[in-house]
Structures are given as C-alpha cells and as structure tokens.
Amino acid sequence: MTAHKTRPGPAPGLEKTATLDEVKLMPGDALQLQPLVEGPQERLTVRIIGVMKPKSVLVTAPMIDGKLIFVRDGQPFLVRAFSGLNVCAFKAKVLKAQHAPFPYLHLSYPETVQLMRIRKAVRARVQIIAALYDRAGGRQIGAGRIVDLSVGGARIQVPRGFPVPGEQVYLAFKIRLDDIEEIVETSAAMRSVADEDDEEGRPATALGVQFGELNPQQRLLIMNLVYQYLLKETD
Question: 80, 124, 126, 206: most buried by Cβ count inside 10 Å?
Fold first, then answer.
C-alpha cells in the first residue's frame, strides 16, 4: 500500500492561491478596504453581512468617527481579512452602494484570493492600561501598559523600580471592540523580565506574561482586537 503524504500548509510568509469558499469568512468578520488609486489613502474597516456566491460579498458601509464615507459604484478596492492564521487579500469593486434599510455595499465576488500564513502566535502592538494584583481579588500592586498582545499572553511595561511579582500575577484590563466593552481578568505566569525604554524614551521594565485559562468570550474578544490592529498594520 502506498503511503499518502500530508500536504503541509503554507509556511509563514509564503503565499498560496485559494477560493473565497476556503477562507470561510463569517458574518461580523472585519474586512479592510484599501482604495486602488495613487497616493496615500485611508484604509476603511467594514464588516461582512453575508456572501452570495458567486455574485457578491455584502459588507457594511465604511464609517469614520461615526460619519458615513462616500463610496461610488464601480470603485475598486484591495480587500484584506484574517482567517485563522492566514491573512487573505483580493481585489473587488463596488457593484452597488445601498442606503436602505441601512447603508451597505455589494462587493464583487472574487475568482481567487491570496493567502499568506502569519506567525502561529498572532500578536499586535497595542496600548492598553492594565492593573496588576498580587492575587485574585487581592491588593493592587500597581498599573502598567500592555504594549504587545496575543491570545496567549502579553508584554507589559511598568515603571523602572516596579516591585516585580514572583512566579504569578493577576491582571485586569479593558477590551474595547466597536460597541463591545469588557473587563478581562486573568492570572498570568511570569515568563520574562527585562529593562527597556518606553516609546517616550523613559526607563521601564517589560514583563513577559502568559495568560491563564481564558473563557471563550475573552479569547474571542482578544483575538478580534489583535486582528483589528493587524489589519491597520498589514501592507
């Protein structure tokens, strides 16, 4: 009997061509629209309403600071999204901009999409205030700033001279995602301690921590927040 070899997925940084079906985007997933015109352009974030294969991809109309952004029929975009550990990209044009019963867009359905594998530990640079406690429900020992975040853990900058905890610390930080706001409270194992300067050049200490068990809602919120930051950074 001939052994069948398992086809490996794309290595980090390598691209492959796929179909939109394979990406399995779901209603509510975020997409980034980059206008295909010369010069600097603001990237617009929208959310999937549904997919009508092979006709169109329905998305919310883009808004900035609560104001609707004008999009014309036929306008071309480079569309990016995250699926699992892949970032996908495809070109699409606006088939129709609708305003009733609410503003939304019909984007053209792509024949193919490009998938690029991203690192297994998906991380993003953030700026989130975190409170640190000596134990669950215990005494607050100080506050720091999360500057690097993933579902598995974080890097937290605290002032130089901060009383570094022992093997474990308890954290509380607020996640804001669109209209959702939730306080995440979790234990965290100390993995590293290093002196560095913060973004303003002030002496700081960086605590590398690994989160304890998160509930499914917390994991989903953190992953969506990380993806949202990555969508802004991805070229």
Answer: 80
107 & 146 share domain: no
Alpha-carbon distance 89 to 79, whole Å? 5
Per-residue pLDDT of the chain (235 residues; tens, 9 = 90+): 444 333 344 444 457 898 998 888 889 888 889 898 876 567 788 889 999 999 999 999 998 878 898 999 999 999 988 766 677 899 999 999 999 999 999 999 999 999 877 655 678 899 999 999 988 878 899 999 999 998 889 999 999 988 877 889 999 999 887 556 789 999 999 999 999 998 888 999 999 999 998 887 788 778 778 877 776 665 5
Question: Is residue 103 located within the same domain as residue 180?
Answer: no
**Is pTM beyond 0.85 here?**
no
Distance CA 160, CA 171 (A): 19
| Number of domains within the chain | 2
CB 91 within 8 A of CB 36: yes
Residues 116, 197: Cα–Cα separation, whole Å: 33
Domain range for 61: 15-117
* Residue where a domain terminates, one of 75, 91, 117: 117
